[in-house]
Amino acid sequence: DGYGWNTNNYYLYADPSDGRFHFLPWGTDAVLYGTGMETDSVFAYSQLTNRLYSHAEGRAAYLDRLQALLDGTWDEDALSERVELMTSVLIEDLDVSDALLTEAAIDEVWAIVEARRADVGTELARGGVTWPYGQRESFCIQYVGELEATFTSIWGSISTQDAFTYGSGSTSFTYDGQSHLVTDMGSVVGTVHGESVLYVAGWLSDTVAVLVYMTAPEESFEIGTIELDLDDAVGALFYYDAETMSDFAFLAYVVGEATLQAAGTTQG
Q1: What angle is formed at CA 244 by the lines to CA 241 and CA 249, rounded to 5 degrees?
Q2: Burial of 266 by CB count in 10 Å (0-12 exposed, 13-18 middle, 19+ buried)?
Q3: Alpha-carbon span 54 to 161, nearest angstrom
Q4: From the CB of residue 213, how many other CB atoms can be counted at a distance below 10 Å?
Q5: pTM, whole model, 2 decimals?
Q6: What pLDDT, in 10s, does the model give residues 208-259?
């Protein structure tokens, strides 16, 4: 769940003393998870990891480093102590159902810890493996169309989780050269994890729905304009096909402006 696989969870730091870039990895929520992939010793989806692993000298350096980590850093006993300590802290404060779920997740971690040395060692003993998945396509932002949306809602309505029938809204957008108009939409807005979140949702046809999404710092949700810059404030368009899907799927980011003619973060 990092740069080499999901191409996320990292920062780049440009060291002013030598002009070189350094990776700062983060995102420890998916450490020691099973992946179901064909390889255990390498992830090379991203451009840099793919190019380096495809190069004989880059691959050799990577495999040497991996062997050194396996020999000198990977420590099953130390990991076991950490897992046991965390388990003792977690389990005693959970109810029965949560404790069962947590214990199942811990068992998954144990299984990976116990098998990891052999799984990676087997691939290293073969001189490394061929990365079978190729390279992820570029996810640089490209223009795909225009979108306009309007909404009226009540602050705190997001707790209803009913964006189709609560509030009102409409949207018109072009995507892949096709124009779409949805005039009968619902809308909910409120606080989620300290951020203001807005959903405007409606049916494009009998089976296909669209959802316009926006999140921004709660203090910015006041009369005026919010810049949807994919940093402080994010806009997006999602879609749903009732015949083939179980939930909404991402379609496109929305970059532009959200103008609030009346706004406030007081409940109701």
Answers
A1: 50
A2: exposed
A3: 47
A4: 19
A5: 0.59
A6: 999 999 999 999 999 999 999 998 999 999 999 999 998 999 999 999 999 9
